[in-house]
Amino acid sequence: MSATDNKQKAEELKTKGNESLKSNKVDEAIELYTQAIELDPENHVLYSNRSAAYLQADKHSEALKDAEKTVKLNRTWAKGYARKGAALAHLERFEEAEEAYRQGLEHEPGNQLMKDALKDVEAKQLEVTNPFVVKGAEEKLRASEKTKAFMADPEFREKIKEMGRDPQALSKHLGDERIVMALAVLLDVNIPSGGITARVPRDPLVQQATKGDHLPDLTGEDDDEEEGEEETRGPSPSKEPHLSRSEAQKKALEEKELGNAAYKKREFPEAMAHYDKALELDPTNITILTNKAAVYFEQAEWDDCLQLCQMAVEKGREVRADFKFIAKAFARMGNVYFKQKKWEEAVKHYDHSLAEHRNPEIVVKKNEAKKKWETEKRLSYIDPEKALKEKEKGNELFKKGNFAGAVKFYTEAIKRNPDDAKVYSNRALCYQKLLEFQLAANDADKCVALDPEFIKGWIRKGHALMALKDTMRAMQAFQKALDLDPQNTDAQAGLKKCVESDDPEERRKRAMQNPEVQKILGDPAMQIIMQQMQRNPEALRDHLQNPDIAAKLQVLLEAGFISIH
């Protein structure tokens, strides 16, 4: 069978697979897509369709594998990234899902389904990093023995409400250990209920990495676990009752406490001397190493701090120390890299810490570092000179009529220089030629947002909106171009065509799909105002004195629901 015959047969199998999937015959669809792939293994659509079928069959790992193959075969096809994002979301890998959807939207910015999916995974990710935004959070805190007493405090309740309204407030309130406990309850993380004795965190070094001059609190380094909690890694020397310790271990703890006291007074040489003596007496207690590392952190001796933390990790694994203590060592390393603005390393070490023990504070820090890392990568990619070369390549393909190829180079130019309004205008024209009118309108919007004086951007917007049959907004765009250049013939022709083709009834039908219009029309107060205007047109003048009402009337005017003569 020839290659052409194979492709034709594969297309037939794909069509049958699509029909089976629509009929909810998922296994049959998977088999048909698999047969098609055997005949045409380079067809990215086949992998995409089978990914969708696997997802429907709750085979999420297989769905992800096919989605990744789809993207590999066609890196500019937005649906491949959508498939990848959906599979990752079902696997609860929300950060990766978010990245996949963002990549897809780079190739198809107007894809509403992908925008909605991105919002969903962002919300789920937010629930992981800040569960105060989740509905029912307050009820859960009232029901928990660990936090119900806190909920009697109006100040505490107000903090909870503030974090529910504004996720950014979480970092502000982590200094209140009651908030840390509440965060642990909402995330189902164990923190000893008897451990909350003050309003400062047990390990403020997590916060010290980026702000404040307070010293890390070292007194909680070797607290006991909750009674009855099962040991998973063997006994930790720092957790054994004092009566069962050897004399050397007892003296080591005494030296450690003396070191902690000196540390709090910022008497670092004395603190170091006590920690060194404690290590001589008990070299298996890794909390002494992490306390000593905290001194180096305060003195900005980053290499020494990292070296000691690494020693603590290795020693901890050797003596089968508690997960929490190893997690603290990794967290301290993450804090060092955070201070050094080495975001990738910070994220990596926070991940290591969370793999040992899930601490809500470290979750917050990791996400903060990840955002800074992503911003740094995006900014480091910007290169106006390379952007200009990509733009010129796009121009050459556009002249040859290769609009899809031009889009690829314009997209790369935008990544290299996202503030160049003209590249968005060029890509908008390509989308217009490809009949992708919504994408053209999106790019035109971005163009005029970057440069409101760029006449061609407004004309691009007008033509895209006219193709979308959004006549009123198209007229506004052309009018804006004429405000800038009253003699512009393109804008004049566009405005004239809008006026000639305007269908008020069609405009009202389209407007009814707009949630803003629906809300205004459903507002009882606006209904009364509109009735008053029908009976007495002079009432309009009074209502226009109110800025809020005037704005709503303007929306209805543009939508064709009211007219002014």
Which key phrases capture this entry?
mainly alpha; single chain; 565 residues; 0% strand; 71% helix
Question: Summed up, what is this model?
Answer:
Helix content is 71%, strand content 0%.
Number of strands: 0
What's the main sheet like? none
What would you call the shape? Answer: globular
Strand content: under 5%
User: Which regions are unreliable across 5 or more consecutive residues at pLDDT < 50?
Assistant: 192-214, 219-244
Q: Tell me the distance between the termini.
A: 72 Å
Helix/strand/pairing class, anyone? Answer: mainly alpha
Output the number of helix runs: 31
Residue share in helices?
over 70%
Structure notes:
With 565 residues, this protein is an all-alpha fold. Helix content is 71%, strand content 0%. Helix 1 packs antiparallel against helix 2. The longest helix has 22 residues. The radius of gyration is 31 Å and the shape is globular.
